[in-house]
Design a protein that fits this description.
Helices cover about 65% and strands about 0% of the residues. By secondary structure, the protein is an all-alpha fold. Keywords: Signal.
């Protein structure tokens, strides 16, 4: 997977030719950012944006996004997603924050170094967030959709087969905690007619959840959100995300959907929920374990 740093380098370096503009490109972009309230009042006072400045902004944005797309296309796995990623970056004004990072890298403003560095750090974090969201939405949506399809067709090799006792305890937990829509699905708690009198579900389920969380942590790190930092993401950080947002409970019932006769509409709805949850978890790992 391409690193955020690579995208940011392309975006910001493409803007570094400001001195080559036929007018004061830095002043043009500073005025543009001030008018959009993307830099504070302590920087140069906002002035009216001229038509030549606006044309320069649009041209630079177009060139920057084209360079980003070319960089994405260098990665075979991202070729089919590069157009979607660039469209998302355009929608969220990605280049505006690249402008901001470039302008704030200059030291000739009447602000303290601390203030300038703080704003530049915020701009870089925003660029990482926007590029990460775009990659997750455009590239990983298909990957998560494929995982859902494999779950529904019993082709998933991600999970070990549960023992009958573990399976019973998971079903019991899902039903008791209303983790599945009981108006649509009636999940059989004990399809194998086990003698449950001696099954200690509290211990069995707690031990199983530990294994599930370990698998989720490993899975999030394998996703390789950012090749420059994925190996440095701590297990503890990912585990905190999984716990804080209750992803085990939210995702658990999907393994049992294949037991029901679902219409194509129901399958698409459940797939959309699954993909949304997986993207949400991936983004939270990115925010908490990569950006912060």
């Amino acid at each position: 997977m391409i690193s955020f740093a690579a995208i940011l380098f392309v975006a910001i370096s493409n803007i570094s030719f400001l001195d080559c503009a036929p007018f004061d490109g830095k002043l043009c972009i500073t005025n543009y950012l001030r008018n959009k309230e993307l830099i504070s009042d302590n920087f140069r006072a906002a002035q009216e944006i001229t038509s030549s400045c606006l044309n320069f902004i649009k041209s630079t944005e177009m060139t920057t996004l084209l360079e980003v797309k070319n960089k994405l296309d260098e990665k075979e796995e991202l070729k089919n997603s590069s157009e979607c990623i660039v469209d998302r970056l355009k929608e969220v004004n990605f280049v505006d924050y690249a402008f901001k990072a470039q302008i704030l890298s200059e030291e000739n403003y009447d602000v303290t170094d601390g203030e300038r560095i703080e704003e530049m750090t915020n701009a870089m974090q925003k660029l990482i967030e926007l590029s990460g969201n775009a990659i997750i939405d455009c590239y990983f949506s298909d990957q998560f959709g494929a995982i859902f399809d494999s779950i529904m067709t019993n082709e998933s090799q991600e999970d070990e087969e549960l023992s009958d006792e573990d399976d019973y305890c998971v079903r019991k937990h899902i039903i008791e905690h209303k983790l599945i829509d009981t108006t649509k699905y009636i999940l059989d708690a004990n399809p194998k007619n086990l003698d449950t009198s001696s099954i200690n579900c509290e211990d069995l389920y707690n031990n199983l959840v530990i294994k599930i969380k370990d698998q989720m942590v490993a899975g999030m790190k394998e996703i390789d959100i950012d090749e420059s930092s994925s190996s440095n993401i701590s297990d503890k950080c990912v585990l905190n995300v999984v716990d804080s947002y209750d992803y085990v409970n939210k995702l658990e019932y999907f393994d049992y959907l294949k037991e029901f006769e679902l219409s194509s509409h129901d399958v698409e709805q459940e797939k959309e929920k699954f993909v949304h949850l997986m993207k949400d978890m991936t983004k939270m790992v990115m925010y908490k374990c990569v950006i912060e």
